[in-house]
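Reading is simple: each integer encodes one residue's backbone shape. The lines below illustrate:
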Amino acid sequence: MMKTNPSHKNLLPFPVIAAAAGGNIEAIDAVLKHYGGYIATLSIRQLYDENGNPHLCVDPELRRRLETKLITKLLTFKVA
């Protein structure tokens, strides 16, 4: 019986990465969905309400910028 490394179970399959690098819209969406939680976490900013109380919120502009950067890198990725 072959053991699988638990860190490998959440990886994107190679065909999805290759298709996304080739410009396939559905594959790009799959990559964005896969990394959506991570991008949202990176996009969290502390904002303050009118009373000065801090709140953590996802910055939609930063989120879009990170998604755009990921798509740009995907489209320039060279699949061997």
Notes: DSSP finds four helices and two strands in the chain. The mean pLDDT is 92.
